[in-house]
Amino acid sequence: MTILATEGLTKRFPRVTALDRLTVSAGPGVTGLVGANGAGKSTLIKILLGLLPPTEGTATVLGLDPATRALDIRRSVGYMPEHDCLPPDVSATEFTVHMAQMSGLPRSAARERAADTLRHVGLYEERYRPIGGYSTGMRQRVKLAQALVHDPKLVFLDEPTNGLDPQGRDDMLALIRRIGTEFGISVVVTSHLLGELERVCDHVIVIDGGRLLRSSAIGEFTQATRTITVEVEEGRQALADRLTALGQTVTAHGRLLIVETDSPAAFDVVRDAVVDLDLCLVRLEQGRHRIEDVFREEVANV
Amino acid sequence: MSEPSPATAAAQASPAAPTGVIHDIGYRHYEGPRLGRGAALVALTIQSLRGVFGLGRTARAKIMPFLIGGTMMLPAVVSIALMAVVKQRGVAYPSYALIMQAVLAVFLAAQSPYLVAPDLRFRVLPLYLSRPVTTADYIAAKLAAMALAMFLLIAVPLTVLYAGELLVDLDGPPQTKEYFAALATGVIFAVLLASVGVAIASFTPRRGLGVAAVIAVYLLTSAISGVLVGVLMSVSRDSAAAWAWLINPFFLVDAVQVWLFGTSPNNDGGYPEGVGGPVALAAILVVIALSVTALALRYRKAASS
User: Fold this and answer.
1) Which of A82, B50, B51, B75 could disulfide-link A158, Cβ–Cβ 3.0 to 4.6 Å?
2) Does B305 contact A at CB distance below 8 Å?
3) What is the pLDDT of residue A297?
4) What pLDDT score was predicted for residue B8?
């Protein structure tokens, strides 16, 4: 099942090309949309919501074309913008109720859903106070609540961790993970911080300069390069020489040796080499590549 | 002891036992009805209309609309008192909005920026547009709210005055025709003023600037009209002076009222004979159309940014 798909999607503004023949697709679950500032993430979301017409190409969201069925899409999609979008003089409750009604919920249902949703995003007594006095973390929660209040099938979260402190960031990411799993709502979340998305996404789409750099399941990102990290107390050079002699590719990273490998047998080779040289083994583990590294490599190859 | 004592078992089973457990019922999906665009439009109109009168807002936001609402009632109250005490009519129905034109203008200037400026300034507009509504729906709701507010401001005192007249029961028939003529004219006032006010206010995200702009337009038209009328009258160009009255939007509507309902003019010297009424009506329609076009263009730009 495809939640959204684009085919050769292009958006040109008078002076800049925001999207350049972008072809991507995403299934249910949490999809990360990664790119530097100005990579075209927000433009893509606006096209998918039917707020901007694409210059070329087609898109589908929940099987509907945003160019013709924008209203139907917006009925079952939630949107949390990147920028501040809250009026200061109303309370979070009133605002969320109003936004639920704007999505077509009857007033009584809107009240009930607003109370539920605000509780889920973690706003309690303070939801009766005017939004003007809220902290950034609370504002982000209200923004998230208004995107979820009409129980959409899909939410677009544009930079939801922007401006949050590390604790708030963790809370927000945990909440996004819950939305994708427990709530059963598909999520498209953008970020320019790749490490964050690694923790919550099932699938990551990397775009740069409006073009697709990579689109794959999160597992493939982390498995993309298989290495073994070895740390020994002394004789690091001797071990490196021995492993090289055995035909392994070894690079030194400070106190660590990174052994590139293609099979689990390499673990045995390293173990035997350490035993033969009579060294003290401190660490022997699967090298975990972070998405940042993949991103960096791909950008370098382009 | 192999079995729990009866007392313990009873305490565990008893629903009255003060357990105080908070149940996390988890996320519940919404299975109820989802209404269409019309319902959203009505919701936005009602929300905006309440806001115009300060309902659901801070106490400070209520001062201005309530003060103006009270002021609008004054002539009606005084007239009813006159009818009751000295058996004499006070303010005529068709004159009501004209006499109170400055008050209506202040209300329009004070409240129309509230409808549009905060949504632009705090960037709430993208949220509205991410809902199943179009920019046209948004504009329609805001215009409807302001027009309804202006109409209430005119119609409520008129209705109170009419009810007063019926209760006091003066000699002769009640002025029912004049009352309904004034109500119908009230609709024209409401739509014209709301369109102009909201259109002007929508061009700035700053409320203060919006207030100043709307009041400036009223003062400017009424001053230009007044000066021209004075000059033309002094050189005995009375027919030209009759046209000059129409520059003021309130007398423009009054000219239509005179033409459509045969009421007596509320200015000195009357309006242009013959084509004056139709021209005034055409001018009103043109101004409304221009305002709505300006709003549509304004929001098309705002939506794509």
Assistant:
1) A82
2) no
3) 63
4) 46
Compute the distance between CA of residue B206 and CA of residue B136 in angstroms, rounded to an integer: 22
Residue range(s) in chain A whose domain bears CATH number 3.40.50.300: 4-217
What DSSP element (H or E) covers B83?
Answer: helix B59-86
Distance CA B76, CA B175 (A): 14
Q: Which residue of B has its CA nearest to A144?
A: B127
Q: Does domain A4-217 have CATH number 3.40.50.300?
A: yes
pLDDT value, residue B214: 96
CA-based nearest distance B70→chain A, Å: 25
The distance of Cα B237 from the centroid of its chain, to the nearest Å, equals: 37
Query: What length does chain A have?
Result: 302
Please give the share of chain A, as a percent, with pLDDT higher than 70: 92
Check whether B2 has a pLDDT greater than 70.
Answer: no
B40 close contact with A: CB closer than 8 A: yes
* Chain segment A117-161, per-residue pLDDT in tens: 999 999 999 999 999 999 999 999 999 999 999 999 999 999 999
Which chain B residues are within 8 Å of A77, Cβ to Cβ? 130
Q: Does domain A224-301 have CATH number 3.40.50.970?
A: no
Judged against a pLDDT cut of 80, whether residue A262 lies above it is answered with: no
Give yes or no for residue A292 having a pLDDT over 70.
no
pLDDT tens string B234-243: 999 888 999 9
The separation between the first and the last C-alpha atoms of chain A, rounded to the nearest angstrom, is 31
pLDDT of residue B4: 46
Please state, in angstroms and as integers, the Cα–Cα distance from residue A165 to each residue in A141, B37, B152, following that order.
14, 39, 49
Judged by a CB distance cut-off of 8 A, whether residue B124 touches chain A is yes
Using the beta-carbon criterion (under 8 Å), do A116 and B28 form an inter-chain contact?
yes
Average pLDDT over all residues of chain B? 90
> Interface pTM (ipTM) of the complex?
0.85
Q: What pLDDT is stored for residue A247 in this prediction?
A: 80
How close does chain B come to A94, measured CA to CA in Å? Answer: 9
User: Where along chain A do the CATH 3.30.70.980 domains lie?
Assistant: 224-301
CB-CB under 8 Å, B132 with A106 = no
A151 interfacial to chain B (CB closer than 8 Å): yes
The Cα B179–Cα B93 span in angstroms is 6
Residues B182, B97: contact at Cβ < 8 Å?
yes
- In this prediction, residues A155-169 reach a mean pLDDT of 92
Of A220, A255, A110, residue with least CA distance to B46:
A110
Q: What is the pLDDT of residues B40-67, one digit of tens each?
A: 999 999 999 999 999 888 889 999 999 9
Structural tokens at position B38: 């019309």
Which chain A residues have a beta carbon less than 8 Å from that of B118? 87, 89
Q: Which residue of B has its CA nearest to A47?
A: B304
Question: How far apart, in whole angstroms, are the C-alpha atoms of residue B201 and residue B197?
Answer: 6
Q: In chain A, whose CA is at the least distance from the CA of B51?
A: A90
Which of A61, A68, A101, A113 has the most B C-beta neighbours within 10 Å, making it the best mutation to test the interface with B?
A: A101
- Minimal Cα–Cα distance from A147 to chain B, Å? 9
